[in-house]
Amino acid sequence: MGRMHADEHAIDTALVRRLVRGQFPCWGYLPVTPLASGGTVNAVYRLGADLTVRLPLTAGGAADIAKERRVLATLGSLPVAVPAVAAVGEPAEGYPWPWAVHRWLDGEPALEGRAASVRDLAEFVVALRASTADGPPAYRGKPLSSVDAGVRRAISELERTGEPFDASAALARWTSALAAPQWTGPPCWLHSDLMPSNLLLRNGRLTGVLDWATAGLGDPACDLIPAWNLFTAATRPVFRDAVGADDATWARGRGWALAMSVIQLPYYRHTNAVISANARHVLTELGCRKP
């Protein structure tokens, strides 16, 4: 990945090794290996065989370390593995923010359009939604109207990039999503960032879900995003039936998928190939890419 953010802190293997040795000498002898990741908030390194080190790239991601730790401590039993926080590090060695060490979870990241268990993911979404624990507002658990201005700006920007993008189709789908009835039920627990790279698979089965800093309570529509960012037209109805989405919630979920893709693609098209490819997949599935 290239440098993604103008205010991104320089992070490399030598820095990670110094931080670990200085604060957690019990792990200081372990090898440090950078991990290829489609993530946009943290640099991720493997520490030995059983740990990962996650360092926020920008000041905006630094607060996520504490929030994710609180969320993971709050959640009850889920049908798949979630990260366990092994330690939290302090600013040092010129690195200005807290950072975290997590237990390693086995599995390969999901990839849009490839085989993945629809029912496994639906079971996870339903189980998370059923949690009764108190929690913070989810990052994307609010009404779609809260991102309306940003989505419209992004559609205009994307139209200027030279991508084979149908802005008229995108605006029509966005307008339709905004018109859907809003969620009037109690706030539900949501992950709110179910990107394929946050879903770990083994032999096509979902085994783990990563990156919980955006999780919290809100409208369940945003956890329907995998219907478009992971699945295709052939499997999308199975996912919808399994999560029990009504017409309005499904329409809002489609709106969130569109919002994420049109905001991500112009920002990351030259710096994050994983996110860019996924955004293009979503726009294709939504009929917003020109042939």
Chain-wise SSE layout:
Layout: H1 13-23, E1 32-34, E2 42-47, E3 51-56, H2 59-74, E4 85-89, E5 99-103, E6 108-109, H3 118-129, H4 148-159, H5 167-179, E7 188-190, E8 199-202, E9 205-209, E10 216-218, H6 226-229, H7 236-243, H8 247-268, H9 273-285
Antiparallel strand pairs: 1-2, 2-3, 3-5, 4-5, 6-8, 7-10, 8-9
Helix pairs in contact: 3-7, 4-5, 4-8, 5-8, 8-9
Keywords: Transferase
GO molecular function, one term: transferase activity
Pfam family, one: APH
Structural class, judged by helices and strands? alpha+beta
What is the terminal separation in angstroms? 27 Å
Helix amount: 25-40%
Strand order of the largest sheet: 1-2-3-5-4
Major sheet, described briefly? 5 strands, antiparallel
Q: Give the topology string: H per helix, E per strand.
A: HEEEHEEEHHHEEEEHHHH
CATH topology of the largest domain: Aminoglycoside 3'-phosphotransferase, Chain: A, domain 2
> What is the CATH architecture annotation of the largest domain?
Alpha-Beta Complex
The number of domains: 2
Shape: globular
Count helical runs: 9
Strand content: 5-15%
The H-level CATH homologous superfamily of the largest domain, spelled out, is Aminoglycoside phosphotransferase (APH), C-terminal lobe
- Gyration radius, rounded: 19 Å
Mean pLDDT: 93
CATH domain class of the largest domain: Alpha Beta
Would you report the number of β strands?
A: 10
